[in-house]
Design brief:
Elements (H helix, E strand, L loop, with lengths): L4 H16 L30 H12 L2 E6 L2 E6 H21 L25 H12 L2 E6 L2 E6 L2 H10 L11 H5 L14 H14 L2 H6 L1 H15 L7 E2 L4 H14 L4 E2 L9 E2 H16 L3 H4 L11 H29 L9 H9 L10 H30 L3 H14 L15 H13 L9 E2 L4 E3 L2 E3 L4 E4 L1 H4 L15 H5 L24 H18 E5 L12 E2 L5 E2 L4 E6 L7
Parallel strand pairs: 4-11, 6-7
Antiparallel strand pairs: 1-2, 3-4, 5-15, 8-11, 9-10, 12-15, 13-14
Helix pairs in contact: 1-3, 9-10, 10-15, 11-13, 11-15, 13-15, 15-17, 15-20
């Protein structure tokens, strides 16, 4: 028998009501009896560690309705409310205790009242989960507040979640990030499993990210890649931070492919743009941060009223900014479409979405929230993730200059020094591919895959998992599993030369893009962007550390979010290695 949260909230509300009833201090009002308050603190000195017991003792002296002062604020306490609220909460827990069938749950730490196991999470939740799994096992259950959370930390357990029971865990939990930054759960990331999500995924795979569509937009990727190289070339011999250049490059590339380049620009006084690149970059950065936070209100319903961490306020503000921006983009594309005579040919991904939205055969009609959510996925999915992967890869390479030498040797042999690397060349560059795979193993796009949500009771590896369980697959720990990876903590690209391991979600020891129904639909675009950018940056420049910095001094500390970034980006010096006319 499931006890709806409404009973718990209602009981808690009754208790809260007893403590927040305000007595208006009108003249000539007859006030209830109560102890004399002290200056400043009022009667706060009379509260012990168990306020309800303190109130009980005070009521024996002053009566069933008493008036206290908490600071300077009057507080009227009705003993009837207190008793009834406590009785209702006690009834809820007794019903849970005696009416649930005995379940065999995975092991896990004992939860605290109210907070559950939230106290065990550090600033890097994936690392906290990893250490807990060393004690409790590869499949463990925690409580975040009162909500069950299942954590899968091994390839075997990831396979159970993402393949064996894929359809049961294919939904998403209703977290605040999905409501306020996912356009009310209307994007591909946060939408629950159902008819709309299946339709949206089909649209993405067959239309937006189809090979034909991506090939038609290759010219944009080439132009922006050359722009990046042209920006870097004048900085030759000078210290630079790659993080100052990569996000801008990926944003310009993806935004042009998604919606053309007239809606955001380098200048704030552009006639057609509504936001600068810097502003849009900040919005996307904020989206990734807020998408990965542990928001207390998601796990402890009473806390959602107060927004103690300020995350919901930020989410709401960000959602408004995105709504304004994407409405402008959609209106602009619709206006262009209306002015077109003859058959309309989509020029970018937003054009394609608008064209599809008019299809009368759609199972679920696309609303404005759906459109904005999908456009946001197009932008966010290929910007931060690609930039972070390239940045992490260079952090690793500069710790091991000999790997850069091997990459240069492969590039010189396969490509030569008279041209740049094109997308069609990548089959000739297995070592570059191995470098990228090894980087994704140690630094997956999402250290924790976005949370899954069980839509019915099921049995996983002999354990009973109830409906409504939130599930995290720890992709970070999969890539460090010593049973599957020899010298797991070391950066060794050669392991992928010797064993051509798949990264599309079929090998559960390496899941940078997830697996199953919820695997990232933009995988092919992301890999095109990362592969050719990495190859050309290595092909075009020699790389070294600045000053007296040694490879062993490079920090691999992380900043956690929906994607993880280096906490301490490194300063590098590059020198051109190709004929100067190519730059």
């Amino acid at each position: 028998m499931e006890i709806p949260w409404v009973f718990i909230v209602f009981g808690s509300w009754l208790l809260a009501l007893a403590f927040v009833l305000k007595l208006f201090n009108h003249p000539k009002r007859k006030l209830p009896p109560g102890p004399k308050p002290w200056p400043i603190i009022g009667n706060l000195n009379l509260l012990g560690s168990l306020p309800h017991v303190s109130f009980h003792h005070l009521s024996q002296k002053y009566g069933d309705l008493i008036l206290l002062k908490f600071g300077s604020k009057p507080m009227e306490i009705s003993w009837v409310f207190i008793v009834f609220g406590e009785w209702l909460l006690a009834l809820v827990f007794l019903l849970k205790l005696f009416n649930h069938p005995k379940r065999k749950l995975p092991p896990g730490p004992k939860p605290w009242p109210i907070i559950g196991n939230l106290n065990l999470l550090g600033s890097l939740p994936h690392v906290s989960f990893y250490h807990l799994s060393q004690k409790y096992g590869d499949l463990m259950v925690l409580k975040f507040g009162s909500k069950p959370v299942l954590v899968a930390s091994s390839p075997e357990m990831a396979k159970e979640i993402l393949k064996t029971h894929d359809i049961i865990f294919a939904s998403r939990p209703p977290l605040a990030a999905g409501k306020y930054t996912g356009f009310n759960y209307s994007d591909m990331l946060w939408a629950s499993y159902g008819a709309y999500w299946r339709q949206a995924r089909k649209i993405c795979l067959s239309e937006i990210f189809s090979p034909k569509r991506l090939d038609s937009l290759e010219y944009i990727r080439i132009e922006e890649r050359q722009t990046l190289i042209s920006r870097l070339f004048p900085q030759s011999g000078k210290p630079i931070l790659l993080k100052d250049h990569l996000p801008r490059f990926t944003l310009r590339t993806i935004s042009r492919m998604a919606m053309s380049d007239k809606y955001c620009s380098d200048q704030s006084n552009s006639d057609t743009s509504i936001a600068t690149l810097e502003r849009l970059q900040w919005m996307l950065d904020e989206w990734f941060v807020l998408g990965g936070v542990i928001n207390l209100g998601d796990w402890i319903p009473l806390f959602s009223w107060f927004d103690l961490q300020g995350y919901v306020r930020r989410m709401k503000a960000l959602g408004k900014n995105f709504t304004q921006f994407y409405k402008y983009v959609i209106d602009g594309h619709n206006a262009t479409k209306m002015q077109t005579t003859g058959d309309f040919a989509p020029k970018d991904m937003v054009d394609a979405l608008l064209h599809i939205s008019n299809d009368p055969n759609l199972v679920v009609k696309l609303t404005s929230d759906h459109m904005m959510g999908l456009i946001n996925n197009l932008l966010a999915g290929g910007t931060d993730t690609a930039a972070a992967t390239i940045e992490w890869t260079f952090q690793e390479l500069l710790r091991r200059p000999n790997i850069i030498d091997k990459a240069h040797h492969e590039l010189d042999k396969a490509i030569g020094r008279e041209r740049w690397v094109e997308e069609e060349d990548f089959s000739k560059l297995p070592y570059i591919d191995a470098i990228i795979k090894e980087s994704l193993r140690l630094h997956p796009l999402c250290a924790l895959l976005p949370p899954h949500y069980s839509i019915e009771d099921c049995n996983v590896a002999g354990y009973d998992i109830p409906k409504g369980t939130i599930v995290y697959v720890n992709a970070w720990s999969l890539g460090r599993n010593s049973k599957y990876w020899d010298r797991a903590e070391e950066f060794i690209p050669e392991r992928f030369i010797e064993n051509n391991i798949d990264i599309k979600g079929q090998n559960f020891a390496l899941l940078p893009f997830g697996s199953g129904r919820r695997r990232c639909p933009g995988y092919s675009l992301g890999m095109k962007l990362v592969r050719t950018t990495m190859a050309n940056l290595l092909h075009g420049f020699n790389w070294k550390l600045t000053g007296d910095m040694r490879p062993e001094d490079i920090s691999m500390e992380e900043i956690y979010g929906l994607t993880t970034h280096p906490k301490k980006p490194i300063s590098v010096i590059m020198e051109p290695r190709l004929p100067l006319h190519l730059y």
